[in-house]
Amino acid sequence: MAVMSPRQWALTAVVLAIMLALPLVLPAFWLSGILGRSLVYGIVALSLTFLASYGGFISLAQTMIAGVAGYTVAILAPTAIPASSSALSYWLAMPAALVAATVAGGVIGLIAVRTRDIYLLMITLALAVGFSLFAQSNIDWFNGYEGIRNILGPDIFGYPFRTHLVFYYVSLTVAALLYLLVLYVVRTPFGLTLQGIRDNPRRVSALGFDVALHRVAAFALAGFIAGCGGVLITFYNIGITPSSIGMTATVNVLVMSVIGGLGHPIGAFIGAVIFSLMDTFAATVYDRNRFNTLIGLVFLVIVLVSPDGVLGFGKRLLFWRKPKAREEQTGTH
Amino acid sequence: MTLQYMITVTLNGLTLAALYFIVASGFSLIFGLMRTVNMAHGSLYLIGAYVGFSVFDPLYASSATYDYAWYIAVVAGVAAAAVAGVIMQVVFLGWMQGQELRQALVTIGLSIIVADQLLAIYGGNPFQFFAPDLLFGPTLVPVIGRYSTFRLFQIGLALAVGIGLWVLLNKTRLGIMVRAGVDDRQMLAACGINVPLVSVAVFALGAGLAGLGGVIGATAQPVALGVDVKFLLTSLVVVIVGGMGSIGGTAIGAILIGVAEQWGQALFPTYSVILTFAIMVAVLAIRPQGILGRTG
Q1: Domain range spanning residue B184?
Q2: ipTM computed for the complex
Q3: Given an 8 Å threshold on Cβ–Cβ distance, is A246 in contact with B117?
Q4: Do A296 and B112 lie within an 8 Å CB cutoff?
Q5: Of A121, A140, A290, the CB nearest to B101
Q6: What is the pLDDT of residues A96-122, one digit of tens each?
Q7: According to Swiss-Prot or TrEMBL, what is its membrane topology (chain A) (predicted)?
Q8: What is the number of structural domains in chain B?
Q9: Using CB atoms within 10 A of its CB, is residue A66 exposed (0-12), middle (13-18) or buried (19+)?
């Protein structure tokens, strides 16, 4: 099964080209405040969409894993306030953070490996909120409630990381590479087995595959993806606090993924853009302090009306116009 | 470490466990029958606390109604949460029965909205109920001396709730329906029972228990922002540890988590959260269905 048709590949290339050219026309605020932000949070949402779409796991631990990466890079960062005794250069801190996130993803996978569906949702949520509470109460490593500040990121070709253009292009590159990585992985034997497990774990197990191992590996890969997002988010926020990985942040990533649509990895980024736009412009639509009510309502409407998100809604609109195309597609299965 | 200290910490743990049990038993009850993971359970707790307080405050201020303000607040809090629960079940959840993940997502959406609207209506200031005179102040307890009467009352109330639920589930017609529904909803419906109506009743009961927990919890400790998340989290952990849909399991889970939390805070304050999750992970590794949970 091809993940994307040639037409969709062409569309992807066009979108990427437009994204590359956008800095020519957009003001700096849009680059970092909307697009850059959508990209970095979209990466975390991508890890959730990957697990949900191809593994059938709705994991709420992805923000927590991003937090593990963020805290690792913050603790090891040379510019951190409060300064840490274990400061390294950013070029060592970032790989360490990604390793930590991958391991954390694997551990979450191990904990959750024997459970599915709704239990998985509950267990991962409990772990996520627990980690944030732990970070909040622990001073030795996490500096408690205040978190760790002044995480500026490395210089890229002599430019500070937080220069608008540098941040935008690095985020875009990382996001695009991870997106393509997901599309590649799901076509490998590993990815196909994973989808088999999603549809019928017993049958795949009977074929001789190690179901548990595949699940843990999927969580580790999702951990790596979330870790990349977590490092970039920490640079974007110039630091990390327990509340930035708490319940609200966890739910926000879920909201992005669900609004965009859990059916395809691109949904994560669509959802993240919609979320950022709403977050930024909610004040002009509705009471500025009631953003949460607005996002909650949008989320609720999406779940009630179109559980497969904007993506699914768009697809249905398309197929509603062309009922024949739908028949053809269902015919091939 | 003296014996007195050890007993006090354990007693603190048990009183906390009592509150956890009241809230989590409602969560477990709803899950047991409907397989609905109610992510808005913490919001129902908040609704109980806030509505209870808005009834309590004026009554407490006037000398004529001062004596029974708290009792009316309990009734109001329970009723408000139960009504909110019924609305949730009837408007949103009932018609998507069986789609567990979608139901969980709907309740997450509702919890975001409820928390934000409560903040808009009541503001973010912490508040606390004053216990009625009967339950106010200390009681003499052997060995440890003076101990908060209200906290002891919490344990008594949790026992009453536990026994009440046991009687309801095991000795009444509704209880028979609920237990049959847990095993096989379709057969229950085929027997001519109005299952959606039973579901609404169970949802009202479960939500009412969250509301009761809200008023009791807000009497023991002030309500501040984030309390809904804390009680949702606690309910999750308690039923994961104890076993879904089992009242006995919920009691065991609540005692384990409550006592572990207090002992953790007494022994290693900045790492105490880890203890709670270590228990959860250990239980999941050995018995994924929870201590008293059934497989399948």
Answers
A1: 21-226
A2: 0.88
A3: no
A4: yes
A5: A121
A6: 999 999 999 999 999 888 776 788 888
A7: Multi-pass membrane protein
A8: 1
A9: buried
